[in-house]
Amino acid sequence: MTNDIILAGVGGQGILTIAAIVGRAAMERGLNVKQSEVHGMAQRGGAVVAHLRLSTETIYSDLIAEGAADVVLGIEPMEALRQAPCLGPRGVLLANTEPIRNIPDYPDAEALVRRLRTLPRSVVLDAGAMAKEAGSSRAMNMVMLGALSPYLGVGEEDLRGTIVRAFAAKGDEVVQTNLRAFAAGKAAATRTW
Amino acid sequence: MSQMLLLGDEALAQGALDAGLSGCYAYPGTPSTEIMEYVQASAEAAGRGVHRQWSANEKSAMEEAIGMSYAGRRAMACMKHVGLNVAADGFVNSAVTGTHGGLLVAVADDPSMHSSQNEQDSRFYAGFAMVPCLEPASQQEAYDMARYGFDLSEAERVPVLLRLTTRLAHSRANVSRRPPRAPNAAGLPGDRRRYVLLPAIARENYAGLVARQDAFLQASENSPFHALSEGTDRSLGIVACGIAYNYLMEVYGTPEACPHPVLKMCQYPVPRTLLATLVESCERVLVLEEGAPMLEQMLHGPLGPRPQVLGRLSGHLPRTGELTPGAVAVALGLRPPPAPRPEEPLLRQRPPRLCEGCPHIFSYRALLEVIGDVGPGRVFGDIGCYTLGALPPFDAIDSCVDMGASISMAKGAADAGLAPAVAVIGDSTFTHSGLTPLLDAIWENANITVFILDNDTTGMTGGQDSVGKGKLEQICTGLGVPRDHVRVIVPSARNHEENVRVLREEICGHDGVSVVIARRECIQTLRRRSRAG
Ligand SMILES: Cc1ncc(C[n+]2csc(CCOP(=O)(O)OP(=O)(O)O)c2C)c(N)n1
Ligand code: SF4
């Protein structure tokens, strides 16, 4: 089993939080993990990409081969579209619709969402709204993590366990909100292609 | 022992701690910063009293590490690739003095220039200084090489350069630890005179360094990190250096699936016998190396190019930038060159930018107004978050070359008649390399204004403390800038008019050296502090 996931977003959005939770859960399960991150210049509100690889076998490359990703998880729509060509022939695109308009020439957001929906095996969701419904718009990343969960070789229980531990210090209320957000994301992205 | 999920930088740091490190010395720089940050966060390091404060720059970090090694303890100096240019004097000469306690010089290269001005390859520096060089292919090797490197350094009495590249430095993987070992006790070297590089002593040391090249070569021939695998298809042999080995394996899936003989090369000097075994048994050789085509150039020789040698110079791989699994597959003829991606009309560039509310924004707004009066082309910039002021909507700086160059270039340009000239420099960059050129400017009373953007931190690399904290005015007046031409402003929207007035007075109204310090904390560190309570 190998999962090759590309996470895409804008600096400061927290793609590394998602990657860290999945990576930790996978390691605790005894899987091999490689997780390539972005630091430095690229973080200042620019486009950022992280590669996350999980496998029962030895993982060699820190980078996912071009055109071979199983999943692109875009927590920003234009960044999701930018990375979509990295997907392999059976790859799944998971994209959040909420734009980060930190450039003057940001494209028409509705056109972006329409474009994302035309791509094969794409799940386009308003993770911000779903997080709000779950109790806090700050749980947007957990909605996206939930959306990713059906495509991972890491059990849901392991992921939920890691979420509980990651937020335990902030109290039960926060933990429950994040678990609800996770469940909502999962329900929205569970499909058969 | 337990498994950990560590960045390459962190694996190296943990490896060094477990190998008995006593002092980590560094100046931040992507992608090397997390080595020191890991040591700083380590409870073990705290318990053992391992040195782990940032230094003013890479040169002082390097020399402090040499001092700790002299006193018998294991020391590591960490920096990004261009930092080694700054530290080069100490580094090259530490090969001549030799070491006492183990001395590792960890340098992280940045091919593709994700966060750098160039993609220089530090392996050349190891060859230049005639010291061994290690190049891990994985996070586990980064961990293991720390101990191996200290042992090699202590056995051969020579500093050892450990070269990382961005993808390894900033990628996490499972790492297994080994039982930690105790640090060395402090003690003087038996032959202290070798640290006095007077010509007579230096000549003797240097001859010794030259004589030990064979031993370094032997160590490399016997290195546990190389691996030579037989292959059935000898029409091509492959040499894969460091992380390039991973891309090769990615292409084939497993070592057994690769039909060609492969030499995984992770230590220098180049292991001659191993390399000869591969080269002589194959019709052609493909060289995969991250960074410069160093080994490939050696194989071509000065009379090359030789048609049997393939790599970045022959055009089989891109001449610049990072390797990727795809590029390696193309070089092997297993995949066609990538077709240009179909145009996606909805995509836009999203370059990095200053954070919303960043104090630099207000500094630039005020500066731009004054530059409007004196004409463009005279603002010499430097390296840090504020370099983003070169981009729209500011277009405020005209240069960014290397740390500290804003002040020296402004002085040089003023010498040429481009006066007034302005240097824009961050507080950390100022204490890194700005003091000495400022002294030059004061000595000659050059007509320049130094605009120090003091956000109380090293913002670009994630907010490390800067060694000049709270002392910038004293430093400037102490160096000789007249007291009434060291001005302090607070960069904010509310102060705009006042700030323009101060800048105008110093830039346009004063013929000589002046300093304007724009002081307001980076909003990222401010936020972090208020969150921490
Ligand atoms: C020789 C060298 N060392 C380190 C770096 C990495 N680096 C780039 S900018 C910077 C410091 C920036 O701090 P400061 O000058 O205070 O500006 P700020 O980012 O806070 O605006 C560092 C360490 C470099 N480019 N060159
Ligand atoms: S990190 Fe700090 S200094 Fe850098 S852009 Fe953001 S606010 Fe400005």
Spell out the blueprint of helices and strands.
The complex is a heterodimer of chains A (193) and B (533).
Chain A: E1 2-10, H1 15-28, E2 32-36, E3 47-55, E4 69-74, H2 77-83, E5 87-96, H3 109-118, E6 122-125, H4 127-134, H5 140-148, H6 156-167, H7 172-189
Helix pairs in contact in A: 1-5, 1-6, 2-3, 4-5, 4-7, 5-7, 6-7
Chain B: E1 3-7, H1 8-18, E2 21-26, H2 33-41, H3 43-48, H4 58-70, E3 74-80, H5 81-97, E4 103-109, H6 123-129, E5 133-134, H7 139-156, E6 160-165, H8 166-169, E7 171-176, H9 199-211, H10 213-221, E8 227-229, E9 236-241, H11 244-252, E10 262-265, E11 267-268, H12 272-281, E12 284-288, H13 294-300, E13 309-310, H14 325-331, H15 359-374, E14 379-380, H16 405-415, E15 421-426, H17 427-443, E16 448-454, H18 472-479, E17 486-489, H19 496-508, E18 514-519, H20 523-532
Parallel strand pairs in B: 2-3, 3-4, 4-6, 5-6, 9-10, 9-12, 12-13, 14-15, 15-16, 16-18, 17-18
Antiparallel strand pairs in B: 1-7, 5-11, 8-10
Helix pairs in contact in B: 1-2, 1-7, 4-5, 11-14, 15-19, 16-17, 17-18
The site of iron/sulfur cluster (SF4) has 10 residues of chain B, from α20.
